[in-house]
Amino acid sequence: MKGIPEAIFQRRAVKVFEPVEISEGMREQILNAARHAPSSFNAQPYRFYWVETAKEKTVVTKLCLGQMPAQTASALLIAVADLESLTATSQRQLEWMRSRSEFSEEKIRDYERTAKIGRILFMPGPFGIFGAMKWGLFWLLNLWKVMGMPPTSRQDLFKWATKSTSLACENLMIAAEALGINTCPMEGFDGRRLSKYLGLSARYHEIVMVIAIGKKSRAYVEPPQWRRPLDATVTIL
């Protein structure tokens, strides 16, 4: 198993894989790494679809435009920003806190209040009316007070959820690399048809990326890697 810095520096977007079986234990480790990524309010606004059977992979590969990483991967991971799960997730965390002796009644009530505030802040309302009202209110408050702007539209909510989903995907790819498995994140796919195939709702779900997972083919030669130097990327204040 590689160390984390080594896995980060060696991770590449592999274009051709060779057939290997990903064990159930390894699959669980990779997916557990994804769900341990940080997310705002611990909302975990994502859902993952692990595709490994030949029949399902054939369908998903076609919807990924037949790309070589998808064709040759041992499995495909579809990462979805999921707004539908927010209420259920906060409720499950509340139940978990109540089952643990470490949390006092005061801590549980604090979480209930925080979750309620989060639902209010993140609620666009019918036809986006409540979101527009929130935008106007926070814009006025921001004229005289330093403060952030919460999501005020469904588009903003998907942007927010996509950030957390992307963090989870990076965790997943680094964990796979550390375990000796390679990956290739792909943005080329037919989102409408893939969403329909998975039974997703445009109101609550948005596919962020599809990740091809497998073992790099010994015949595949990686091109040299280039990254901007630190002084062109980082500003120290």
Question: Could you please describe the fold and organization of this structure?
Answer:
- The chain is of the alpha+beta class.
- It has a domain at 4-86 and 154-232: NADH Oxidase (3-Layer(aba) Sandwich).
- The chain has 9 helices and 5 strands; from the N terminus they run αβαβααβααααβαβ.
- The chain has helices spanning 4-10, 24-35, 54-63, 68-72, 86-98, 105-121, 129-142, 154-178, 191-198, and strands at residues 17-18, 46-51, 75-82, 182-186, 205-216.
- Strands 1, 2, 3, 4 and 5 form a 5-stranded antiparallel sheet that branches.
- α1 (4-10) crosses α8 and α2 crosses α8.
- The radius of gyration is 21 Å and the shape is globular.
- It starts with a helix and ends in a 21-residue tail after the last strand.
Characteristic terms for this protein:
237 residues, alpha+beta, NADH Oxidase, globular
Structure, briefly:
The chain is of the alpha+beta class.
Termini Cα gap: 37 Å
CATH architectural type of the domain at 4-86 and 154-232:
3-Layer(aba) Sandwich
Q: How much strand content do the residues show?
A: 5-15%
The overall strand count is 5
Largest sheet: 5 strands, antiparallel
Helix and strand pattern: HEHEHHEHHHHEHE
State mean pLDDT (0 to 100 scale). 92
Radius of gyration: 21 Å
How do the strands and helices of this protein lay out in sequence?
Elements: H1 4-10, E1 17-18, H2 24-35, E2 46-51, H3 54-63, H4 68-72, E3 75-82, H5 86-98, H6 105-121, H7 129-142, H8 154-178, E4 182-186, H9 191-198, E5 205-216
Antiparallel strand pairs: 1-5, 2-3, 3-5, 4-5
